[in-house]
Write a structure and sequence with these properties.
The chain has 13 helices and 2 strands, in the order H-H-H-H-H-H-H-E-E-H-H-H-H-H-H. By secondary structure, it is mainly α. A two-stranded antiparallel ribbon has the order 1-2. Helix 4 packs parallel to helix 6. The longest helix has 14 residues.
Length: 220
């Protein structure tokens, strides 16, 4: 059976050039929509929908060069079915610094993305790259990570807890949702939450889950 992704790729390759040009016409008028940042964003998003893989990756790179104003396009790339496009989005935002927080919810979603993508001389793990980017954001990632603690994916819950734990006392506001995770049905999630709480509340690493609940429940 032909892979569903391959079918989609073949359909995208089969798109006539004139269809792509037709989609871009509204953006090509001198002094028109293309003159505005949002116009350029949606032009690149249009390319991402219809062009070849290499052209789509180049469009994502252009979006990254535009900075946070291009966040809607980067979000679309992070949700793309093509793992190379998702990787391109992660690479494109490397220069955004703290402004990367505008796509933090999408980065949290990618914590569950186990794709390994070969690029250049090496291979990239999308989940790991997402985690590293969130860790660089430090406190600015906290709201998205708190949402991640409630995610259906146990991997996202576990990893979000671990990242919050790395923040130490800076993440004190996360104690209540982390305490709730101590009753999670997944053993790894419970352990990750307990470890995070020990680091945030500066407790001994041998402190049991029951003792953590006893000490911190009054503060939550």
């Amino acid at each position: 059976m032909v892979d569903r992704n391959e079918k989609r790729k073949s359909r995208r390759r089969a798109q006539p050039k004139w269809i792509l040009l037709l989609c871009l016409l509204p953006f090509m008028s001198v002094g028109g929509v293309l003159a505005t940042p949002i116009g350029r964003v949606w032009m690149y998003v249009s390319v991402m929908q219809l062009a070849s893989e290499n052209s789509r990756i180049e469009a994502v790179q252009k979006l990254g060069d535009m900075g946070p104003v291009a966040a809607p396009g980067i979000r679309a790339a992070m949700h793309d079915e093509n793992q190379r496009i998702r990787l391109a989005a992660l690479i494109a935002i490397k220069g955004w610094g703290k402004d990367t927080s505008c796509v933090a919810p999408e980065l949290v979603q990618l914590l569950d993305d186990d794709a390994h993508v070969k690029s250049g001389a090496g291979a990239w793990n999308l989940s790991l790259q997402s985690r590293l980017t969130l860790e660089r954001l430090q406190g600015k990632a906290i709201p998205a990570l708190i949402d991640g603690l409630k995610h259906n994916s146990s991997k996202i819950r576990k990893t979000a807890a671990a990242i919050l734990g790395n923040l130490g006392p800076k993440a004190l506001q996360c104690v209540p949702p982390l305490l709730r995770l101590l009753d999670d049905h997944n053993h790894e999630v419970r352990e990750s939450a307990a470890h995070a709480l020990r680091r945030i509340a500066v407790l001994d690493q041998k402190t049991s889950i029951k003792e953590i609940q006893k000490r911190l429940s009054k503060q939550a």
